[in-house]
Amino acid sequence: MASNCPQCGAELFTVEHNVTGWMPTGVYCPNGCYSIHTTPVPEFEAVDSDPAPGDAIPEPVRIRYADVMRDGGSYALAYDSAEHEVIKVLLRVVRTDGLERTGYHKPQLITVDPVTYEEKSSREIDWDAADRLGYLLRPLVTSGGEIKLGAAPRALEMIRYLSLRGGL
User: Fold this and answer.
1) Is the pTM of this model over 0.70?
2) Which of 32, 62, 75, 157 has its CA 20 to 30 A from that of 151?
3) pLDDT 10s digits, 16-34
4) Contact (CB, 8 A) for 79 and 148
């Protein structure tokens, strides 16, 4: 990769995951005329295949959409379940009074109407269940068809945050 901006010639700088702070990982021009964002691929360990009662996750079969929200870093992802439901996963950002992103609240699973996306029911899941969900969603990013809005990069970002148990 070039070490200088193809637009202005300034030296590019790299932002590494969990090293540079608030900026997304990638390569940037200090003058703002060039950027390439990258998404680290999450690493997963085997998950508990026998969740506690009430912790069952509707099995995902296709991701409909994934995107980051304009509230400072919350994520939303919707998927079709094996039970023919549409499930929205909402991961709300935690911020300081100075609007610095510090982590994420526990995810919410929201069953929605497949046409209007109006909420039918919702529940909060713990981080173990969130990790299981990420494990189930990951293969669908590359094999489950078109993902709308932020597409595969946003889906992978959300899956990574699900595995980090609310951390950055």
Assistant:
1) no
2) 32
3) 766 666 667 777 788 888 7
4) no
